[in-house]
Amino acid sequence: MVGVLASAGCGYVIAGKKIKMWGMILIYFMLVTTVPMQLFLLPLYSTFVKLGLMGNPFAAGVVIAAWNLPLPIFLMRTFFLKIPKDLEEAARIDGAGTFQVFTKVMLPIVSPGMITVAVIVALNSWNEYLLSSTLLQGETNFTATIKFLNLNGTFSRDMSIIMSGAVIMIVPVVIVFLLLQKYFIEGMTGGSVKG
User: Fold this and answer.
1) Does the pLDDT value for residue 65 go beyond 80?
2) Could you tell me which of 171, 182, 63 has the C-alpha nearest to residue 125?
3) Where are the alpha helices (DSSP H) in 110-158?
4) What number of other Cβ atoms are within 10 A of residue 23's Cβ?
5) Is 95 left (phi over 0), alpha (psi -120 to 50) or beta?
6) Angle of CA points 181, 183, 188, to nearest 5°
């Protein structure tokens, strides 16, 4: 939820060119999407060790959320670019401030995009392995993905347990997608072209 609101706020600001150097910020986010995760593992690991955060699921969650932000920001930016400027100007003439324009006018219009971003971020976080396995140590802090991969033993494999684990891993994703499929597809097609 935090990632969705943060990406919506950033997308709104970048789409409206409301800050100086917005072009540089846009280039920065484009460059960040091309950098591989492995490049940040050693600095992240040493920082977590120095701060005593190894095995802390909340700290790892913040890192995973930050890593998932650039793509949602781009998606939300395209949704905000589709909204006519007249709506924002009309709300401002009626006396709405920036926060009211954002929350009462813009967010309801881009709600399909927010659902799309929520599904993408949730899937990326659910399937995330590299950061979780590096920063979360101790079996009590493992995510579902790491626990599932631990079912595959070195010397013995119980395929019935592995297949049950696979079903448990897949069912929540399928249920969420089926419930939000209409909004997800509407959001993907709506944000693909600037109108």
Assistant:
1) yes
2) 63
3) 111-127, 130-135, 144-150
4) 10
5) left
6) 95
Which residues are CB-contacts of 148 (< 8 A; sequence separation ≥ 6)?
Answer: 165, 166, 168, 169
Which residues, other chains included, contact 142 with Cβ-Cβ below 8 Å and sequence gap of 6+? Answer: 132, 136, 150
Name which of 26-35, 80-89, 152-161, 180-189 the model is least confident about. Answer: 180-189
Three-class SS state of 20? coil
Q: What is the pLDDT of residues 138-158, one digit of tens each?
A: 777 777 777 777 777 655 677
Q: Which has the higher per-residue pLDDT, 148 or 69?
A: 69
Q: What is the DSSP letter of 135?
A: H
Indicate the angle between helix axes 70-82 and 111-127, nearest 10 degrees.
170
Q: Is the pLDDT of residue 188 over 60?
A: no
End-to-end distance of the chain based on CA atoms, in angstroms?
27
